[in-house]
Amino acid sequence: MVKEVQLAIAFADVSQSTKLYERLGDQKARSAIAACVAVMSEATEKYGGTVIKTIGDEVMSTFPTADAAADALGFMQEEITESMSVDGIPLAIRAGFHYGSALLEKGDVFGDAVNTAARMAGQAKAGQIMTTGATVDNLSETWQASTRQIDRSTVKGKRDPIAMHEVIWQREDVTKMVTAVFGHQQEHGRLVLKVGAAEAVVDAEHTAAGMGRGDQNELVVRNSLVSRLHARVEFRRGKFVLIDQSVNGTFVRKNGGQEALVRRDELILEGAGVIGLGQALDATEPDAISYTLEV
Fold first, then answer.
1. Cβ proximity of 222 and 214 under 8 Å
2. Residue 247, SS3?
3. Are the C-beta atoms of residues 232 and 211 closer than 8 Å to each other?
4. What is the pLDDT of residues 138-192, one digit of tens each?
5. Helix 26-46 to helix 17-24 angle, to the nearest 10 degrees?
6. CATH level 2 (architecture), domain 181-294
7. How far is CA 124 from CA 15, 48, 144, in A?
8. Is there a contact between 100 and 113 (Cβ–Cβ < 8 Å)?
9. Is residue 175 a contact partner of residue 264, using CB atoms and an 8 Å limit?
10. Where do the structural domains in the chain lie, given as residue ranges?
11. Residue 122, SS3?
């Protein structure tokens, strides 16, 4: 019997699982992924959800409310992305969910809401939880205050683009975020980031670079003030956007003296300057990340 219900549908999978097999070998990688799937399944049940299916490194679940899905996915991120590693290699997951009308039949779930939830998960990066604007409207005020709209995207089967929101799952901060603009907006070019001998380029082809203490970042800074997934720079609609997702914030000093603290917020970068993860830094200090926008 087919039953139509309102529920939250969530997808979560292990980030870069193929690379885990390359770096760890088949046995260790399989065990690590199985451990992640076990955590994701347990978290689903902990917050009143139902595991619909597991496929390799992915778990599909349903929840009675949008808050329950956010709670479960946040718990998964804390348990896996913040805490788990194998042979010094950090593990991470990406996740997405959507609240809406779906069809239940013989323990499976179908419909447009499923496709939308899968799209949100597909848009997430390691350590991220993505959801829709419609879902945010169904969240409690506390969770709404921990979301920010980052884009609009076209979803298969929908004529109009939908609003995409990132859910900030770290529990240390639940203040509402407002997009910040640092100087003028730049419409093209490439952004070069450097720390020590390491370099990362963000442009239309390479659209993101992560910075933090974890090895999965393009730029790694080993410092107790730096979070594992501290911040990232994205190329978004012709602009270079710094996104902080840390506990201690990210300091940006543009050449010429202006400095900004970005904490669970965004900043559009232009020109050249210095980025300090967790602390303000001068360009001469070893942990300072220089950035240069090349037009």
1. no
2. coil
3. yes
4. 999 889 988 888 777 766 666 677 889 999 887 544 433 334 444 444 456 899 9
5. 140
6. Sandwich (2.60)
7. 10, 23, 18
8. yes
9. yes
10. 3-167, 181-294
11. helix
